[in-house]
Design goal:
By secondary structure, the chain is mostly beta strands. Helix content is about 5%, strand content about 45%. The protein has six helices and 98 strands. The relative contact order is 0.04.
Length: about 1300
């Protein structure tokens, strides 16, 4: 799941704004920072500014200002102010004072001249007033320019019209205040050295847009593209109204690209984009064009607003355009709701034409013209089809990768259909397309829809077809692999990597809310590799610390980058040396960084290499070697690492050798300054290093040396141990010392003159063992408290502290939390993201080094406790119980709510007792077994993973005692009138009431107790329910409910009416017949169904056909006259009774019939003998024997005639095959066809067709041979056999 994004906070309390100034003026930009000690930098075109005669930079606490003296035209550019991780951009626009005044005067003169000319034309009686008004005519843009349907309306305001026909640069347009327009510019950190600016133009005038690119650092000529809107490439539209130019200056190596719009039209207005690319470099810029109508200064002719959109010049041609009468509105105020689940096609169908381009921008439509053409076709009214019972919808929409199923209903179940895609028939290959036929339904299923499936689909049946549009919607780009937090050292390379769901997707990188771009120093590099996107920072600095965010149109991910200064660690310090004349002195040290260089000093003077002095640097080791030591080499030697504020020092002592007369026998002597078990005599060695004991000895003759450890004599039997004796020295060496080599060593020297002994205490130290796995004591919103146990072994050196690391659960990168050792075993880790799972581990540190890391802690999620529950109140109370209720906390955080805990205590006591074990998930609870009459206080806490929230308590203590409440019945509004139900319907009456203690409830009907077998009653503390599963007529009546508490009672009554269908009317009589009329009369039914009879339905029927027709519906009277009867016909009648339930089950029929007498003579038609057209079946064309290939459909055809139409039956080897699914039989105009689907070898044999009718029957047969693919028929049918079959058919 994507990590929550932390809200970035700006470092500025007040930001500088864009200003417009005239040449020579002084401009002051002011800003205020949140912190008074914040460092502020001012930039001009991404270059830092310093205070000088031109620029004056001042800082007073948190107030900062930039003053620009004597502004010139070159100062009109982009500026920025930076504080911490926040950057604010602003512009300075410089205008020429004299030029602006001249332009204004010239415009005023032009306006006066145009007003004067229009007055003269009006007085001279011009034929058409609209012809003299420039705004009265409007021409449609030609094919080269964008169509009106693709561009939004022009700007809201119309400035004074400049000189007609003049070429106007976008940034020099009079009356255009760029400070009010949206700032489309960014710092010139990309390929552009000059970007095209937004501009305004009047209809009929020209305007130029200029873009400049510096090609000095490019390896390839830049390619530029101009776009209108989001998708329209203007290179193909170049022509009469649009010209594109390109210039190259070889001296400055600058490309100049121009786009000139000639004779601007209102449809040209809108948003434009310029893109430039060169190999792997890319930059783009957006700008706007506003086209104003040329308006008349004096007088307004309403006819001028009724313009025609035609180009042939005819006054009557084209369609009227009323757009000039529309009230323009501010586009910035209109808001489009972004609802990703809406169907774009439905939005376009309902939206007006003026909103098409806005919808296209919002939903990312790349082919608006094509969609509008489809929309136009679909708005045509479709004729009713005889072939299709149900056609395809005009359009469908499906998400990319999903399945789409198209369905139609056809009138003929046996008809074949064809599916077309963009006019081409779809073939059933693979699993992409699946065709299905179920009854009269035909399905086309498209699996795994892609952008190539976005097309027009057509279903063809015979000569008719139905068409639909399928739109494939691309899903939003999501982040599948999120950014990870990183901690690096200063100067290291940083790579922030994420992975998105789609290849080639566009992402945006931000640092602390500010978008990152490629700057001149290539500080940031953006790399794409398939679905992976990488942000590369070369040589990280402290300024690069912050939160980095990568955004797509479907999500975002954030990580934190921490940059720390490098700390140089000293692995081996230089030691003091005491050497004799002619010996070699070597000073050696080892540091942690191999790249660090250093300088050697002697008594504060730099040491230079010479014949005796050698300075080396190999890896982490620095050496100073002095050969043939002399007395003047004695002194203090110092090594200073470059770039670090510390040094390493040691002293070189020169040992003078005095030669005295020594007798031949001299007892041995060990020359050690200190011996024994004191701290000074203890030699410490790091585990794994070499232990070398060099002991000076004297004696004549040369003494023998014995090394012991305890009582054990140390010999060279072990490969790690070496004992060596030289003149004046005895050396004891152990390679790779470990803990078992620790102890007291003794050296004994003997010669004939005596012996001497010295003890040396050796201590082996090592890095400590890892601590135990850390335990998470508690968690907060963005922090946790972790605790661990010290390591079992400190390595022989005391623990000086601990180092902690954390990582996200799904990540592999550990981030260090502290660089200086932390002395305690409890640590509070902060700056974590709430809701993200983390792990912790610990290192132990002593003077030797750092231990291995401990085992990782159990995963945990930083979450904060919820806020306290709200609205705690008493819902009910009795002598021993209380009912409490509350609402959920306002803030739940990222963790789920585990439940609520309820506690209570007696008033005046601090001992809170849980009301029940565990937690409850409900927001109401009943606490039982409370002491009667005691004053109690109650409180509620909400619990989540972080623990309990703050408690919510009642405002005051509550006395546990039931309160007497009078009984009161609350009749629902719908039961205050008679409740009407139909027979067998369920009756469920819920009657709420109040009253304490619980009242006694009694139900009765018409003064009698209810029958429990028919009626069920259920009671609770707050309501009573009357339930009848199947109501009957006898359940009608007046029900009474009574509540009684001691001597107080309350009653209420409810009326129920059970209704049923009425009975049949009675005694329907024909009272009179005259002319074409019949008078009827009847009596009401005896059973009205327990409700009012609302009317009667009167029907008539001719005795010949007995088809009933309704004469009257809901007729209120019990007599009527049926008119407009047909003479010569005899009629009968029937009557239904109608009430609120419906018609009576049975009608009442008239006992007699009414005959309508004819008038005049009776016509007797002549009689004719009916001709017999019957004919026995006869096959006019026989079946022909065939030989077909297995696996391919085969057909057998013949033709037959006969009257009446004979019944046709097909046989194979004299077996009826009419009901087998493998065969299909067709009959059309007497031609009979048998289709055998994909025959196999078992389908061969003799096939027979038999036709039968009442006049006789006929039979024809043939042989069918099935051969394998690639073979020829074994026997050809001879001409004689074919003639025999023909003769047999005759």
């Amino acid at each position: 799941m994507p990590e929550p994004v932390k809200k970035t906070v700006s470092a500025f309390a007040k930001k500088p704004k864009t200003q417009v100034a005239e040449e020579g003026a002084t401009v002051v930009f002011e800003t205020e920072t949140e912190k008074p000690d914040a460092k502020v930098r001012w930039q001009c075109n991404t270059k830092d500014l310093v205070s000088d005669d031109k620029y004056v930079i001042k800082a007073d606490g948190n107030k900062h200002s930039l003053t620009i003296q004597a502004v010139t035209k070159e100062d009109g550019t982009a500026y920025a102010v930076i504080a911490g991780g926040s950057k604010v951009k602003f512009d300075l626009k410089v205008k020429e004072k004299e030029v602006m005044e001249e332009v204004k005067l010239e415009l005023k003169e032009k306006v006066k001249e145009e007003v004067k000319e229009k007055k003269e034309e009006a007085q001279g009686g011009a034929g058409d007033p609209a012809a003299s008004d420039p705004a009265a005519t409007c021409t449609v843009a030609p094919a080269e320019a964008p169509s009106p349907a693709e561009t939004p309306a022009a700007a809201d305001t119309t400035p004074a019209a400049p000189q007609p026909g003049a070429n106007i640069q976008a940034h020099d347009t009079p009356g255009f205040d760029e400070s009010q327009a949206p700032d489309m510019k960014t710092d010139l950190t990309g390929l552009f050295t000059e970007k095209p600016q937004s501009g305004e133009v009047t209809v009929g005038e020209n305007i130029n847009f200029v873009a400049k690119v510096n090609a000095a650092s490019l390896l390839k000529k830049p390619t530029i593209k101009w776009f209108k809107g989001k998708w329209m490439d203007l290179a193909s539209k170049s022509g009469k109204n649009l010209q594109l130019k390109e210039l190259y200056d070889r001296n400055s190596k600058v490309y100049t690209f121009e786009m000139q719009i000639i004779a601007a039209k209102p449809s040209f207005a809108g948003a434009y984009r310029c893109e430039v690319s060169s190999r792997d470099k890319f930059d783009s810029c957006n700008f706007d064009l506003t086209v104003h109508e040329a308006r008349a200064v004096e007088g307004f002719d309403i006819r001028a607003a009724f313009r025609r959109t035609s180009m042939d010049g005819s006054e009557e041609a084209g369609e009227l355009d009323f757009s000039a009468l529309l009230k323009k509105r501010d586009a910035s105020k209109s808001q489009v709701k972004n609802e990703p689940d809406e169907d774009v096609w439905e939005i376009l169908q309902k939206a007006p034409a003026s909103e098409y381009e806005k919808i296209a921008f919002q939903y990312g439509i790349t082919d608006l013209r094509g969609m509008l053409k489809r929309l136009k076709k679909m708005k045509k009214e479709e004729k009713k089809s005889e072939v299709f019972l149900k056609k395809l919808d005009p359009a469908y929409q499906v998400e990319k990768g999903h399945k789409m199923k198209l369905c139609i209903d056809v009138a003929n179940e046996d008809v074949d259909v064809k599916w077309l895609k963009n006019g081409q028939e779809i073939q059933s290959t693979g699993s992409k397309y699946i065709f299905e036929s179920v009854g009269n339904k035909r399905y086309l299923t498209i699996n795994h829809c892609s952008l190539s499936d976005d097309a027009t689909y057509t279903c063809v049946v015979g000569d008719e077809k139905c068409t639909t549009e399928l739109f494939v919607k691309e899903p939003p780009v999501t982040i599948t692999s999120h950014l990870e937090d990183q901690m690096v050292m200063k100067g290291e390379r940083v790579e922030l990597e994420c992975e998105v769901s789609e290849e080639g997707a566009t992402v945006k990188w931000e640092k602390d809310g500010v978008e990152l771009t490629r700057d001149e120093s290539f500080k940031y590099r953006f790399k794409k590799d398939g679905r992976k996107h990488v942000l590369i920072i070369n040589e990280a600095t402290k300024e690069d610390c912050g939160h980095y965010t990568v955004k797509t149109n479907g999500g975002e991910s954030m990580s934190e980058l921490m940059v720390s200064e490098k700390e140089l660690e000293v692995y081996q310090n230089i030691a003091d040396l005491t050497v004799k004349a002619k010996d070699e002195a070597v000073f050696k040290c080892e540091v942690s960084d191999e790249t660090v260089k250093g300088i050697w000093y002697k008594n504060g003077v730099e040491v230079k290499a010479d014949a005796r002095t050698n300075i080396t640097h190999i890896g982490r080791i620095h050496k100073l070697t002095i050969d043939d030591v002399k007395p003047e080499d004695q002194g203090d030697y110092t090594f200073v690492p470059e770039g670090y504020a510390f040094n390493l020092s040691a002293k070189l002592n020169f040992l003078e050798v005095k030669i005295d007369y020594v007798p031949r026998q001299d007892p041995p002597k060990i020359h050690l300054d200190c011996m024994g078990h004191t701290a000074d005599s203890t030699i410490m060695v790091v585990a794994g290093n070499k232990l070398r004991l060099d002991v000076p000895i004297t004696g004549d003759p040369a003494p023998t040396v014995v090394w012991t450890k305890g009582e054990k004599v140390m010999t060279e039997g072990d490969g790690r141990l070496h004992v060596e004796s030289t003149k004046g020295h005895c050396i004891f060496t152990i390679e790779g010392a470990d803990k078992q080599d620790e102890g007291l060593y003794s050296v004994i020297v003997r010669n004939p003159a005596g012996e001497d002994k010295a003890d040396i205490n050796v201590k082996v130290v090592d890095a400590p063992d890892p601590p135990s796995a850390p335990r998470i004591l508690s968690v907060g919103e963005d922090s946790c408290v972790v605790q661990w146990d010290p390591p079992k072994s400190d390595g022989g050196n005391p623990i000086i502290g601990y180092v902690l690391e954390r990582k996200k659960k799904k990540s592999y990168r550990w981030m260090r939390l502290n660089f200086d050792p932390y002395t305690d075993t409890t640590y509070e880790a902060k700056r974590m993201i709430e809701g993200v799972e983390y792990e912790m581990r610990v290192y132990a540190v002593n003077a030797i080094g750092m231990s291995c890391h401990s085992a990782a802690s159990q995963p945990f999620i930083p979450v904060a406790p919820t806020s306290e529950p709200i609205g705690l109140c008493v819902d009910d109370i009795s002598d021993t119980t209380i009912s409490l209720k509350w609402r959920t906390p306002e803030h739940l955080g990222s963790s789920e709510l585990d439940g609520y805990g309820v506690e209570y205590c007696k008033e005046g006591s601090d001992e809170w007792v849980p009301a029940f074990e565990g937690l409850t998930e409900r927001t109401s609870v009943i606490i039982r077994d409370l002491p009667t009459g005691e004053k109690m206080q109650f409180r509620v806490r909400a619990y989540n993973m972080a623990g309990p929230s703050a408690p919510t308590s009642l405002a005051q203590a509550v006395t546990i005692r039931e309160i007497m409440q009078k009984p009161k019945i609350w009749i629902p509004r719908n039961l205050r009138q008679t409740l009407i139900k139909k027979v067998e319907e369920t009756i469920n009456l819920v009657i709420p009431f109040q009253g304490k203690p619980r009242p006694v409830i009694t139900w009765s009907k018409d003064g009698e107790y209810l029958n429990p077998k028919q009626v069920s009653v259920r009671n609770s503390d707050t309501d009573t329910i009357l339930f009848i599963r199947k109501s009957e007529r006898k359940d009608s009546g007046k029900y009474e409910v009574k509540l009684q508490i001691e001597n107080v009672e309350d009653t209420a009554s409810i009326s129920i009416q059970i209704v049923d269908l009425p009975g049949s009317p009675e005694k329907l009589k024909i009272m009179d017949v005259w002319g074409f009329n019949v008078a009827l009369e009847w009596k009401p039914p005896k059973d009205n169904g327990n409700c009012e009879i609302t009317g009667y339905m009167v029907q008539k029927a001719d005795k010949k056909t007995m088809e009933w027709y309704t004469v009257y519906e809901l007729y209120r009277r019990t007599n009527c006259v049926v008119a407009d009867l047909i003479m010569g016909n005899e009629y009968i009648f029937r009557i239904y009774a109608v009430n609120m339930v419906g018609l009576s089950l049975e009608p009442c029929f008239s006992a007699d019939s009414a005959y309508i007498q004819k008038t005049g003579f009776e016509y007797k038609p002549p009689t004719y003998k009916e001709h017999d057209f019957s004919e026995a079946p006869k096959f006019t064309h026989p079946l022909v024997s065939r030989s077909v290939i297995a696996g391919y459909n085969a057909t057998l055809s013949c033709s037959v005639r006969g009257i009446p139409k004979p019944k046709v039956t097909w046989y194979k080897n004299k077996m009826d095959i009419s009901n087998e699914a493998k065969y299909r039989m067709f009959s059309k105009q007497g031609v009979l066809t048998l289709e055998i689907r994909k025959p196999c070898s078992f389908d061969g044999g003799v096939y027979m067709c038999k036709a039968v009718n009442a006049s006789g029957e006929d039979v024809v047969e043939c042989k069918l041979e099935i051969r394998p693919p690639g073979t020829f028929p074994q026997a050809q049918i001879t001409k004689e056999e074919r003639d025999k079959q023909m003769n047999k058919a005759d």
